Each structure stands twice: as C-alpha cells, then as structure tokens.
Protein 1
Amino acid sequence: MSPLLELRCVSRAFGGLRALHDVSFALAPGEIVGLIGPNGAGKTTLVNLVTGVYRPTAGEIHFAGRRIDGRRPWQISRRGVARTFQIVQPFPRMTVLENVAAGALFAAGARGVEAAKAAAREHLAFVGLAGQAEAPAATLTLADRKRLELAKSLAMRPRLLLLDEVNAGLNPAEIEQALGLIRTLAARGLTILIIEHLMRVVMAVCSRLVVLHHGELIAEGRPGDVVRDPRVVEAYLGSRWAARAGPAP
Amino acid sequence: MRRALGGAAAALALAALAALPFAGGNYAIRLATIMLMYCVLAVSWSFIGGLAGYPSFATAAFFGLGAYAGAIAQTRGAPAWAAWLGAAALTALFAAGLGVTLLRLRGHYFAIASLVVAEVLREIANSATGLTGGGMGLNLPILRIGVTAQARFYYFVMLALALAAVAAHGLVARHRLGFGLRSIQQNEDAANMLGVNTTLYKTLAFTLSAVFVGAAGAVYAAWVNYIEPADVFDVLYSVKPIVMVLLGGAGSVLGPVLGAVVFLALEELVWRKFLTIHAGVLGLLIVALIYLLPGGLLTLRARRLRA
C-alpha cells in the first residue's frame, strides 16, 4: 500500500541551528504512530513542516501521492491534514461552537455558516463538549480547551491527524479519557501521528514509534523494541543508563 | 419580537432620512450629508479594522484617490455617475494591489505603513500639476440647478452610498467571509491552519474598506466643487473613522453608524461652544468616552439587557 504521508530526507535549519537533519519516514493509511524524543529534538518543527508553517531547507514531503512542501498551511489543511497545537489556540471571543464550525467551514468545505454549525455540534458531542457549545472559548478549563482543539481538528474532516502533545498538562483521569477518544478515532480508520512526552500514552495506543534526537531520526520500530534500543535510552537518560540497560536483544 | 422591533426601527429611521431634506434648511441638509459621509467612512473602516482587526490608516488615501479620480474625470467631461463609479473601481483596484503587499505586516507596522500611503499620494497630487492642478487644486463643473436642489441631490447620493456600505457590511458579517475575517482577527495563524486563505480574505476586506470610500471621495469633490491635495488627503479622514468605530463599538454594523452620528454631533456642539480650543475639548471628550466605555456605546445596551 502506498503511504499516506512520506518524508524524504527532510532537513530544516534556522540560521546555524539544524532543527531537523535528513529525516525520512512514512505513515501507512490507518496507522497510529508515536513521534517521541527529548525536549528540543525537533518534534514540533517536524509538525510545522508537514502543516506548511515552515518550508524544508532540503528534502520533499508527500501527502496522498502529491508533493505538499512549499504549499501554504490553508492549502495543506484543505487536502486533509489537521493538527492540534501544543499550546492551545482557540479563537477566544468566539463561542465553542463557532470555533469548531470554523474548521468545518474552511477546511472541510461546509456549504454555509449554518451547515458548518450543524456539523460542529456532532464533533462537540463526540469530544464531550456539547454542554458548553454556547460558552466563549476563553472560559474553558485547560482540559476542555484540549478537547476543543481536538473537535476543531476533527471538524476539518482530516485524513491525517497530528496530535502535538494533546495530553500535556492533563491529570491521569483526563489522559485516560483522551486515550479513549484516540482509540475511537483509530477504529474509524483515521491515520494519526502522536507527538508525545508521556511514554505511557504512546505505549498504550501506537503500533509503531519514531524517535528524534538532536533533529535526527535515531530509531524506528515496534514500541517494545524501541524503548530497549540503547541509543533511545541514551538520548533520554544518558550514556550511563544505556550501558546498564545493555545492548538491544 | 426583537426582530420585528428592529425592522420597525430601521423603517422609521429610513423614513426620517428620506423626509429630512424636505423638512430642514440648507444647513441641516449639509450637516446630514456630512453625517452620511462619515457613516460611509466608519462602516468601511469596520471591514478591515473591526472584522479583520487590522488597524488601517489608509482611509484618507482612498478618499483622496477617489476624489481626484472623480474630479479629473468630471473636468474632462465624463458624466457624474460614470466618474463616481470609475473612482470607486479605481480605488478598489488600488486597495487590492496595495493590500497584497501591506497586509503582510501586522499590528503597529501595518498601521504605520498604511498611514504613509496618503502622504505619498498627496505628494504625487501636489507635483503632477498637469493632471491635478497641484497645489492650485481642481475646480469641478457646477450642476445647473438651484442651491437647495443641489443640496438635496448630493444628500440622496450620499444616503445611497451609506446604505450600500451598511448592506455590504451586514451581508459580509453574516457569511463565510465575515466568519473568516473574525477568525483572522482573533488568531491569524490558527485561522490559516484551519483552512482560511488569509491573504485573500484580508485583501478582500481591505478592498471593501476602500471601494465605498473612493466613491464618497468622488461625490464629495463634486459636492464641494473644489478640491486640493491638503484637503482630501487630510490625515483626519483616516483618524476620524477609527474614533467613530471605537466610540460606537467595533464588530457590528450598528456600532460604526452610531459612532459616526455621535461623533458629528460632538464635533458640531464643541465647535460652536469652544471656538478657540475646540480641537482640545473634542480630544478630551473622546479620551474620556473611550476610557469610560472601552467597548463603545453599544455596550450600554448590552449592559442594560443583562441587568
């Protein structure tokens, strides 16, 4: 099967800083893949490259068989790539419903404002925010804002969903709820790339992990294998721990 | 019920506006014409400043450009209506071209850049003496009808323009374009990521903020019969609409209209009572109003409804 998203030797530099260097990997349709790595590894830069916020300094990005690097964010989002932000980005003075309707109206191409609002209600019900539909987005709690981000992304009717640390700042019960939502989405056949710090989350839902360190892809494979990879252990915990953990089986 | 009340109020206001030039004297008609012109400027600014949230100071540039385009066409024998339509089209085109470049800037940078446009156009108008008459100004052909008939004619032209601007604003605010502009105003990067073609939408808003102003400039030129660069490219044409919108309340169409009416009333009252220090008193009044009512006069109604 041809991949839904494919990065070919993608690099991005900011001045002298190499944020990403020669990264290649692919996502098959329907896959749930975790992208992990220590702080500053280049995870969010990778998301920004895929969504068109930045252009790669080298390499190509293909989505659904077409090259998307160099396209503008609104063009890429209309082709079916949605993201949630690590730091939530609601429209603060719009209602929760209007926030979600914006995604349905502009990316999913709803016929008008009313049709977009109707679609938005379904997505709000899915994430459990139906009760707050008419509240201004600025009044939501952090956990609810994260749900709002998710509902907005889903309203865009994406084929690929990039979840950039949706679980950061949530308590264990809230994380459990979020995991439930992600599993439901996966069961619907959505392709998901989860950018995470929390190993518990990626171990629970991902079929494959990709590990970034200092902008380079250092490991890729099944979650159980990847966490025992000495290079990964070294990246997270330092070389002393890597020596103690021993070589990968 | 509220909808019916609003409809009745609108019908009443329209009837009053239609009857005014036959009830009032020439001074009242003149004042009302200026009020309608202010409405056009304020509602137009609301497209880019109120909906998209871009603090444009380009209104004077559009006004002056429209005035000169209309005046030049009319002095060379074009019929008035053709000159006005042409001025509106030219101003819209100019704004679209300008917007593609200027709207890459945000916040204060955009404000300063848009402020400069009127200054540049004024210098051009000053030096292109063959076309504009330079500092000598341009005389426009006078309508061969009575003084009162003239006053009424221009009043109704300005009324039509104001109604067109209000209708366009109402339409835009309710539809996809208005929704996208509000998204841009609140978080442009997020809007872009949600599929809003931000460059196109901002340029459309900027063009809409110019087209009626260009027409108003051309009608103004014909109305006062004589224009010069310092008059029509006056920076106050950029500042006043912003004050009016802030005064009335940004975001809706009622706010700019209310702001324009109240601003003109204040201007007239203060001008009469404080001949020597009118500018200072008007400034203080505006500062006080904006401090006491940061959301504009419309929030008074909202507050009462909540109480």
Protein 2
Amino acid sequence: MAKQLYWENIEIGGEVIPLSKVATTRMLVKWAGASGDFNPLHYDAAFAAVQGVGSPIVHGALKRQWLVQLMTDWMGEQGTLKKFSCSYRAMDWPRKMATPMTPEEGETWQCKGKVTKKYIEDDKHLVDCDIWIENSKGEVTTPGTATVMLPGRS
Amino acid sequence: MLPEEISKFIGKSIGVVACEVEKGSIKRFADAVDDPNLLYWDEKYAGKSRYGSIIAPPGFFGWPVNLPRGMTFQRPTDISDPPEATENMRAALAKAGFGRVVDGGIEYEFFQPVRAGDVLSAKSMIKDITEREGKTGKMAFVIIETAYHNQSDELVAKARATAIYR
C-alpha cells in the first residue's frame, strides 16, 4: 500500500494510483466460493455458451471489489471509503490456466481513477473520484465513482 | 409501461437476513480479490490499527449473502422474513418475457467499519422497477435497496443494487 495520503495534497484532476488485475478461471472459482455467487454463467462453459456470452465471464461483483481495492490502497490506512458506485457496462473474460498456479498469457485489466472534487462537509475532508476498469484494449468495461474521507495534515 | 402484475412489487420488502462476518470468510474474500491488505489478514497488525481488529473489505457483509435462493448457500432458517416477493416478482417478470437477469451494478454508502465477529442484519426491499429499451429489446431494471445494521443496531452500510432483466 502507498504511504498515507492527506487531503491537502490532493489536486483536482490528479490520478489515483493505478491497480493491475488479471482475472483467471481459477480466480473466478475462488470468487464464487468467497462471494456466494454460484451462477454457472461464470464457470460452466456450455451454460455460458447457451446464454450467448461465448464462454464464462468475470463476475461483475469481482470487478467491483477490484475498484474498491483501487480506492482502499490509494486512500491509505487513515482514509475511509464513504461512497462507491459502479456499473457493469461490458463483459470481461478471464484468462484460462496454463498450470495449476499460473495463467496463460493474455489480458491484463487496469483499474484507474481521477479526482473530480475536493471539499469539506460536516468537518469531513472528502474527495470524489471517477473510477473505471479498462480491458487490455483500453476499453472501459466498468465505470464508477467513489468518495473517500482523508485525514488533514493539521 | 410495465404491467401491474410487475409494478405491484415496487415497495415490497424482500426480507431480513442475519449475516455472520467471520475472519475466515474475510480472508477467503480478500484472497479471491487478491487484496493483500493486512487489515483483512493479520490479527496483530489489525489489532494495532485504529480499527482494533480485523475488518472486512468494504463490500463484504458476511454470510449468508443476499442473493436469490438456489443461487447461493442459504438454509431456510437463515431468512427471518421469507423473500417470497423476489421469487414472485421474478416469476412475473419471466412471464412477461424478462426471463434472464444480469447484475447491472451497485451503489454503496459506508457508515461504520464491519469487523470480524459482527452479525449484520441485512434488510432489503424492491425500491423500483422501470422498463427501458435497449439494443436487444425491452429490459426491466429492478432496484433493490438493502440496509445493513450491526449487532449494536448501528447502520453500517446501505446498498442500492441494479438487476437487469431481459
């Protein structure tokens, strides 16, 4: 995690430290077990094909948690995530596994963010950001917003 | 305009689920996301932090999870207020030609940290159902709002989830 961020150091238009993620079929299995979403759309090739998505797709909620991590990593331990939103606009497909532990070569996703607003409300030092996930083609598949509360220097 | 058989579900309660937030579940969740944040993993580290204990990543509210019966692990006794509304709503939507559903997205407001050992009460309701025209035809957008309270009756989070039926 990065060193602690302070509200005074935030600039409008500033970038949130990007976070790279690789979705694999293995990760999707872990996510199904950990999140409780057992929809076969995310692990059953035949089912996914019949549903018209080609092959199993990444759970929207897993992408949501990538974006949550984008913010919790950036805000530091003294920061607090106050608001969060995201939409699963486009599908993403996981890399298959080459060995039990390593995925095949393939797509890497970039989680990114940009500061849009900096303000004080009820004594809380707040920062709004636009956040999003880009696939390896640079297309935004998952746009969103987030508000973090940061410590002040004084 | 959505038929009355569907719009009548607007405002209906889905029920209350008691969710236990366990350390092991938190770790499994953080592992699936591949998030090494020590606040989720290390008791000693988390104990020395301002939280005083292991916390859940924002977005994790324990088990069982708030998903339709059959889609997730859920014992009949987990739900104190049976979610007939969701099942009946889904049946009405399917009858109207909206047989498939995908997760459209979510909005959260976080008020308090969620700690390992917490028992959260998740109370949900069908906030709104609207019809929209898309590339592949008509869709029904269903908004489910959930309020999470912890065992001290503090509001820890609110969620507004969108399910897209087509």
